[in-house]
Structure formats: structure tokens, C-alpha cells
From TrEMBL:
Gene3D superfamilies: 1.10.287.370. Residues 113-146 are annotated as: Disordered. One of its GO terms (molecular function) is unfolded protein binding. InterPro entries: PFD2, PFD_beta-like, Prefoldin. It comes from Ananas comosus (Pineapple). Belongs to the prefoldin subunit beta family. This is Probable prefoldin subunit 2. GO terms for biological process: protein folding; response to cold. The lineage of its organism: Eukaryota, Viridiplantae, Streptophyta, Embryophyta, Tracheophyta. Residues 113-129 have a biased composition (Basic and acidic residues). The keyword Nucleotidyltransferase does not apply. GO terms for cellular component: prefoldin complex. Keywords: Chaperone.
Amino acid sequence: MANNETANEQAIANMYAAMRSEINQLYSKITELEMEVSEHALVIGAIQPLDPSRRCYRMVGGVLVERTIREVLPAVQRNREGLQEVIARLNEALERKKREVAEFEAKYKIKIKRGPDGNEAKDEGETREGSAQGVLVGPAGGGQEP
């Protein structure tokens, strides 16, 4: 019977890991799309004040095509709005998945060990990946002090 309980615990752990992985994938996709939205906003900000008859170029299916700002600006704005809608749907899915994980944790009495910094504690044998995130780097060639 102990072997059956171990197998059951392993199945629960695998399901939990898969759910956590889905949450991480949703976070990654949302972040990626938010970066695209900000790029669209930069393009809109750059071309909006220009003459609508001015020539500009747009990448369409891997091909660079010549258009006017009058043609491109509405398309870029529609793309940005579409991306924002997708982000909103992904955020809703993320919230549903978070609730699902919380219910799963409560049902199976899963406790996550937290470190002193509030993040999940790592086992001693595990290496800590991503510890270099958030590093600021100065401008290129800026290694010399004035």
C-alpha cells in the first residue's frame, strides 16, 4: 500500500508541476506581448505627427513593402489594439489558472517553502537559475572612468 501512496503523491506532484508550468508560460507570453504593444506604441508615436502622405516601409510576411503613413498608421493601431485584447484574455486565463492552483494546493495541502526574500526556497542541491536577472549595464565602452 505504501508503494501506491508514493505513486499517488508522485502523480499529484506531476500535476502540480504541470499547472505551475502553465502559469509560467502564461506569464512569459503576456510579457512578450506587452513588449510588442510597447514597440507598436513607439512606432505610432514616431509616425503619427508626420505628414500622412509621407512614404514609409512596413514588413508584411517577411517582405518589406512601401506604403504611406496614411495606410500604415491605422494598421499599426489595429494591431496594437488586437494585442491588448489578447493580453486581456491571457490575464483572465492566468487568474483562472492561479485560482485553480490555489484550490489544488488547498485540496492536497501543498505548502510552498518561502525563503527570507519571499520567493520560493530552493533545495540545497539545486542551483539558482536566473539570479543575474535585473542587472543594469552601462553604455558600451563605458568601462573607463572619467
